[in-house]
Amino acid sequence: MTGTSPSDFAKRLDKTADDTEALLGRLLSDDILHDEIARPKRLMDAMRYSSLNGGKRLRPFLVVESAAVFGVSREAALLVGAALECIHCYSLIHDDLPAMDNSDLRRGRPTLHKKTDDATAILAGDGLLTLAFDIVTRDEIHRDANVRLLLTRALARCAGIGGMVGGQILDLAGEGRFGGNEPIDVARIQQMKTGALLRYGCIAGAILGQASQKEYQALDDYGRALGEAFQIADDLLDVEGDAAALGKPAGADAALGKTTFVTQLGIEGAKQRVRDLLARADSAVSIFGDRAAVLQAAARFVAERKS
């Protein structure tokens, strides 16, 4: 058991979610920035629809709490977290499209392409992706331009061809979308598609805090374990959860013929794997002592979540 009670953890998570919501609201306002020509209303409304009023904001929370280990300013960490959340929200918009997972429901509401149309959804995702890199390069994040460069490069690599986007195409290939019988490496797909952005939430704090190599590696190891635990919990929820709690259809993986941790390990095997990953996450950040309590609680939250 960590030194952070469930109620204290919930308050911290909710506080970061509220702060992230307020910050995203400002970043997605209609106010035109220097070098922008206009902010078209339809585009801005669509971007706000898909990124405001929803989600636990776990990824920004990981940035804030990993940065807190090094005493980094909360305001700077929230900006990086907002950039990461823009990437996450863009990915959900595109994942829901008919050409991808073809989902009608997200966070208990119609998906963006159902609310508007495919073209608006594609462009809203593009807008959020691009805005993320505008945000993460801002001077107020860190006075050292090299720190901002490292944050930007890491975000690109976690979100791009060697991370989330690459994982998405491997996932589609695993469904047989492109013909052939390509071998399915569920762990690799997870590490890229889902785990990469969660891992970024952890290493971003190390970059902001200008951590030592040992400290960086500890948060990297923690982020990898947490990312895999998150995906296995997601796979279990798809089997054992209900649509009302999830805010999206349950059983979607089976309907798409996806190979998941549950199909490979079975329900009990998957649950044991989560327990093993929690132990690994705890061990990874133990070098930080009491400063790691919230991160250890976050790993348990990920493993035990119901939505």
Description:
The protein is mainly alpha-helical and 307 residues long. It has a single domain, classed as Orthogonal Bundle (Farnesyl Diphosphate Synthase), CATH 1.10.600. Helices cover 69% and strands 1% of the residues. The chain is built from 15 helices and two strands. α3 runs antiparallel to α4, α8 packs antiparallel against α9 and α10 runs antiparallel to α11. It is globular. The relative contact order is 0.12. The model has no long low-confidence stretch (mean pLDDT 92).
Short description:
With 307 residues, this protein is mainly α. The chain contains 15 helices and two strands.
Q: Which CATH C-level class is it?
A: Mainly Alpha
Return the string of H and E elements: HHHHEEHHHHHHHHHHH
> Treating each run of at least 4 consecutive H or I residues as one helix, how many helices?
15
Give the % helix: 55-70%
According to CATH, the fold-level topology is Farnesyl Diphosphate Synthase
Number of strands: 2
* Sheet with most strands: 2 strands, antiparallel
CATH architecture descriptor: Orthogonal Bundle
Report the principal-axis shape. globular
User: Residue-averaged pLDDT, rounded?
Assistant: 92
> Regions with pLDDT < 50 over 5+ consecutive residues?
none
Q: Provide the number of structural domains.
A: 1
Give the spatial strand order of the biggest sheet. Answer: 1-2
Class by alpha and beta content:
mainly alpha
Find the CATH superfamily. Answer: Farnesyl Diphosphate Synthase
